[in-house]
Amino acid sequence: MTDRHTDGNGVAGLLAQVLVVEPTTVERKCQGCGDVSPLGAHRAYHGASTVLRCPGCDAPAVQIGMVGERVAVRWFGMFRV
Question: What angle do CA 56, 26, 35 make, to 5 degrees?
């Protein structure tokens, strides 16, 4: 981890607003490299939005941002609860 990113556990509260399960344990199959890993293992980059990236290949997994007072989420890859 660096100052520029944290792991996916750091955005668990934000993801919990849109999911009804514990977000850090949701598994994702990457569309880039095919690795399967929990969202908690992904790197979270913070800027105008928060982007979770695959720990294997750095492909985007989830983009989370605020649109007014609403949370907007963009999903990439396959997810399994």
Answer: 25
Distance CA 81, CA 26 (A): 5
pLDDT of residue 59: 97
Distance CA 62, CA 37 (A): 13
Task: Kindly provide the residue ranges of all beta strands, DSSP E only, lying in the chain, ordered along the sequence.
Answer: 5-7, 27-29, 36-38, 43-46, 50-53, 60-67, 70-75, 78-80
- Contact partners, residue 21, CB within 8 Å, separation at least 6: 81
Please report which helix (H) or strand (E) contains residue 16, including its range: helix 12-16
Q: What is the pTM of this model?
A: 0.73
- Among candidate residues 62, 79, 81, the one with its CA nearest the CA of residue 10: 62
